[in-house]
Every structure is written in C-alpha cells, then in structure tokens.
Amino acid sequence: MVRIRTLVASAVSALAFAALAVGAAGPADADDDFGVGATSKAYAIEVNDVTAKVGEPAVLRARLKIQDGYKILKHYNNRVISLSSADDGVAFDNKMVPATVEEDALVFEIPLHATKVGKHPINGVMRVGSFSGTGEIEMWMQSLRLIGNVTGTD
C-alpha cells in the first residue's frame, strides 16, 4: 500500500512539474522581446545603468517611449514593482515607483543605493497601459521587464 502511494505521488509530482514547465514557457507564439533596448507593441524600453558609491543615494532611470500609432494611457496606474537585485548588492528606497509622463514617454526614476562594491544586475516589472485607434479604441495593460545594472564603487 505504501509503495503504491509513493508511485502515485511521484507520478502526480512529475505531471505537476511538467505542467508548470509548459506554463512557464508560455504559448509558442508569445512575444518575449523584453529587456534593455527591447520593444513591446507600444513602447521602446531604454534603461540607463547606474554607477554610485556604496551607501550613497542614486537614481536608475528607465524610459518607455511610445511608438507611432499608440498613446500613453495616462489615467492608468503606470508603475514599476517587484524591484530586486540578484545578489542583494542594491537596496531600493521604494517597493513601487510611479511613472511620470514626459512628452511622448513614461519615465521611471527609481531611488536606490548600492550595498556592495561591484556590478549588480537588478530587475523589476513595469506595469503600463497604452491605447490606439480613433473610432474603436483598443487598450492594453502590459507587464514589461525592467533589467539593468547598478555598479557600486568605493
């Protein structure tokens, strides 16, 4: 009886893992062009890496330039969330940073400070909205990856 339970549990675990792996990969036609210099349908992403003395305040600036045919959804809560550093070499002053609108772009100014000397990859999620059309309007809310680097110096 114990052996049968173990075999069933192993089979269920393997199926669950396979389902998660397929779900994590996403559909075959999914657009996965996110990151530094990548584009979405509506936005071109620009991220300026930062170099700062350890412990001193700095600001990482990310700019999402709206593409032709699209408009910024200004009344959406455009923001960056889930900020993290791969090696805990960067501390973020806020868990969420709202965007400001500058001309034809959303701008995120993310206050932070390096906690260790060296180059530290950081990431986050930019939740942004856009729309297109004049008669029948289409709106999109997107999650775009923020990927950058913070270099801490002495």
What pattern of helices and strands is seen along the backbone? Answer: HEEEEEEEEEEE
Global geometry: elongated
CATH topology of the largest domain: Immunoglobulin-like
State the name of the first-level CATH class of the largest domain.
Mainly Beta
Helical content (DSSP H or I, runs of 4+)? 10-25%
Please, could you describe this protein's structure?
With 154 residues, the chain is of the alpha+beta class. It has two domains: 1-30; 31-153, Sandwich (Immunoglobulin-like). It is 16% helix and 50% strand. The protein contains one helix and eleven strands; from the N terminus they run αβββββββββββ. The protein has one helix at 2-25; strands at 43-48, 50-53, 58-66, 71-72, 79-85, 90-92, 97-98, 100-102, 105-114, 118-132, 138-153. Strands 2, 4, 5, 7, 10 and 11 form a six-stranded mixed beta sheet that branches. Strand 8 (100-102) and strand 9 form a beta hairpin. The protein starts with a helix and ends with a strand. The model is unreliable at 4-37 (pLDDT under 50).
